[in-house]
TrEMBL record:
Organism, scientific name: Spirosoma rhododendri
Annotated protein name in UniProt: histidine kinase
Segments forming domain Cyclic nucleotide-binding: 10-129
Keyword line: Phosphoprotein
PROSITE patterns: CNMP_BINDING_3 (PS50042), HIS_KIN (PS50109)
SMART domains with a match to the protein in the record: HATPase_c
Pfam family name, one: HATPase_c
InterPro entries membership: cNMP-bd_dom, cNMP-bd_dom_sf, HATPase_C_sf, HATPase_dom, His_kinase_dom, HisK_dim/P_dom, HisK_dim/P_sf, RmlC-like_jellyroll
Keyword Transmembrane appears in the UniProt entry: no
GO terms, molecular function: phosphorelay sensor kinase activity
Residue ranges of every copy of the Histidine kinase domain listed in the record: 287-464
PANTHER family linked: HISTIDINE KINASE (PTHR43065:SF48), SENSOR HISTIDINE KINASE (PTHR43065)
Length: 464
C-alpha cells in the first residue's frame, strides 16, 4: 500500500511515515463498476484516494455528455483538510472497477496537527479544486447564457430575413407589371413642366412618414379614394391603387390637384405610374428596414461579446451593455408579455472592468426577472451616479420586476452555488452565484430587496 501511495504525483515528496499514517488510519475497498458512491445531496465524510480504476462525477441524467469530472488512478477526491464540503451537488459513480483508500474526516484533524507536509499537499489539492470548480461554473453559466441568447437571436433574425425574402419576391412580381405602366406613360402627351410638378408631389409624399390612421379613418379614406378612381376611370383591376395611396398619405385633394395638372384624359395613366412608384418605394423601404434590423442585431451581439476588443480590463459603457442585452433578449421579453421601462442617466460615467463579464450580469438578472413574470408584468431598469461620503463615485444599476417575489425562507440562499427555484431543466442554478462573483471581481456589491409584486436587484460598481 505504501508503494501504491508513492505513485501519487502529489505524494512524491511526502515522508514515508506520513504516508504510513494514511495507511494505518484508512480503509481499503474494492468497488464494482456501476456502483453509485454518492447521490446528489448526500453527505460526504471521506477523503478518497483512487489507487486503481475510474470514478466520474456526473449530473445523474445518464446522458452521453453528462460527465463533469473524470478521476483516473492516483487521483484525490472527497473531503480535504479544512474543507467545508458536507455534501455533493452531483453524483459520484464508479465507471470502472476501482481500488480505493478512504480516510474519515474525523481523522483529518489529527493529521493537520501531526503531519505538516501531508496536510500542505492536501490543502493545495483543495485550492486547485476550487479554482477548477470556479472555471467550470463560469463556463457552464456562459454556455447557458449563450443558449438563451442564441434561441432568441435566431428568432429575431428569422423575422427580418423572412421579410427581405418576401419583399424581394413581391418586387420581382411587381417589376413584371412595369412595362405596362411604361406603355401608358409613353402614350401621354404632357409638357415637361407638368411632369415636373407631378414628380415634386410624388417625391414629397415619398419623404413623408406613413399616416397614423385609426381603422375607421382608414376605411373612410379607402372609400373616398376608390370612389374618386372609379369616377375618373382609373384601372383598379390590375393593381391595388388605394392601399399604396393611403400608405403614402394621398387624399382626394391630392388627386384633384393632379387632375388639374394633367387633365382627365391623362389622369388614369399618371395615377397608375404614381402608384407603381409608390409600391416600389414601399418594397424598398421594407427591405431597408429589415436589413437595418439585422444590422442592429449583429451590432448588439458584437457589443455584447465585445469580440472586437481584447480580453483584458477596459472602460465599459454600462448603458450600451444593458441595451445590447435587452436587444438580444427581446424575443423572450415579448414572448412573456413583459413591458420594459429603461431609465438610464445620460451622464453615466464609464467604469473599468471586463465588458463580457458585466454583460453576463445583466443577462442573468434580466433573464431571471422575466422568468419571475410568466403571465406578464413590468421590468424596470435604471442606472444613476452615486457620490459617497468617502469621495468615491459609483454607478448604481437597479433591475426590478413585478413578479411574485423571493420567499423569506430562501432569500439567504439565492447566491449559493447551484441553488435554483426553477423546474428541472429550466435553470442552471449558477446564475446568481456567478453574478455575485463577477460583481465582487469588479470591487462592487449586489443587494436584493423583495416582496410580492416587487423584486429589485441593486448592482453598485465603482467608477475608475
Amino acid at each position: 500500500m505504501l508503494e501504491q501511495l508513492r505513485q501519487f504525483p502529489a505524494f512524491a515528496t511526502i515522508p514515508d511515515e506520513q504516508l504510513q499514517w494514511l495507511v494505518d488510519n484508512g480503509e481499503e475497498k474494492h468497488i464494482d463498476a456501476g456502483t453509485v458512491l454518492a447521490k446528489p445531496g448526500e453527505s460526504i465524510d471521506q477523503l478518497v484516494l483512487l489507487l486503481d480504476g475510474r470514478i466520474v462525477i456526473d449530473t445523474g441524467q445518464n446522458g452521453p455528455d453528462d460527465d463533469i469530472v473524470t478521476y483516473e488512478p492516483h487521483s484525490i477526491m472527497g473531503v480535504l483538510p479544512y474543507s467545508r464540503m458536507t455534501s455533493t451537488p452531483n453524483r459520484m459513480l464508479v465507471e470502472k472497477t476501482s481500488h480505493i483508500l478512504q480516510v474519515h474526516r474525523d481523522k483529518l484533524r489529527d493529521m493537520a496537527c501531526l503531519h505538516y507536509e501531508l496536510t500542505e499537499v492536501l490543502v493545495q489539492q483543495m485550492t486547485n479544486r476550487v479554482r477548477s470548480f470556479t472555471r467550470y461554473t463560469q463556463q457552464e453559466d456562459k454556455m447557458a447564457s449563450l443558449g438563451r441568447l442564441s434561441a432568441g437571436l435566431a428568432h429575431e433574425l428569422n423575422n427580418p430575413v423572412a421579410a427581405i425574402v418576401r419583399s424581394a419576391e413581391t418586387m420581382k412580381a411587381h417589376l413584371r407589371a412595369t412595362p405596362d405602366a411604361f406603355k401608358q406613360i409613353m402614350h401621354l402627351q404632357l409638357p415637361d413642366e407638368k411632369v415636373d410638378t407631378v414628380n415634386e408631389l410624388l417625391f414629397k409624399k415619398l419623404d413623408q412618414k406613413a399616416p397614423q390612421l385609426s381603422l375607421l379613418e382608414r376605411s373612410s379614406r379607402e372609400d373616398d379614394l376608390a370612389d374618386w378612381l372609379d369616377d375618373y376611370g382609373a384601372d383598379t383591376g390590375s393593381l391595388d391603387l388605394v392601399g399604396p395611396l393611403i400608405d403614402f398619405n394621398f387624399t382626394t385633394d391630392d388627386l384633384n390637384w393632379m387632375l388639374d395638372q394633367v387633365g382627365p384624359d391623362n389622369i388614369g395613366g399618371v395615377t397608375n405610374w404614381v402608384v407603381n412608384n409608390l409600391v416600389t418605394q414601399s418594397l424598398v423601404r421594407d427591405i431597408s428596414d429589415a436589413s437595418e434590423r439585422i444590422g442592429t442585431l449583429v451590432g448588439s451581439i458584437k457589443n455584447y461579446t465585445h469580440m472586437d476588443r481584447g480580453a483584458g480590463k477596459t472602460t465599459v459603457d454600462l448603458g450600451e451593455g444593458i441595451r445590447s442585452t435587452l436587444t438580444l433578449l427581446d424575443h423572450k421579453v415579448k414572448g412573456s408579455n413583459v413591458s420594459v421601462r429603461l431609465n438610464l442617466a445620460d451622464d453615466l460615467p464609464v467604469v473599468c472592468g471586463w465588458p463580457g463579464e458585466l454583460n453576463q450580469v445583466w443577462t442573468n438578472l434580466i433573464d431571471n426577472a422575466v422568468d419571475a413574470m410568466p403571465d406578464g408584468g413590468e421590468l424596470t431598469i435604471s442606472s444613476e451616479v452615486e457620490h459617497h461620503s468617502d469621495g468615491l463615485t459609483f454607478v448604481l444599476t437597479k433591475i426590478a420586476d413585478t413578479g411574485t417575489g423571493i420567499p423569506d425562507d430562501i432569500r439567504d440562499s439565492i447566491f449559493d452555488p447551484f441553488f435554483t427555484t426553477k423546474e428541472i431543466g429550466k435553470g442552471t442554478g449558477l446564475g446568481l452565484d456567478i453574478v455575485q462573483g463577477i460583481v465582487s471581481h469588479h470591487n462592487g456589491s449586489i443587494k436584493v430587496d423583495s416582496q410580492p409584486g416587487h423584486t429589485e436587484f441593486s448592482v453598485c460598481l465603482p467608477v475608475g
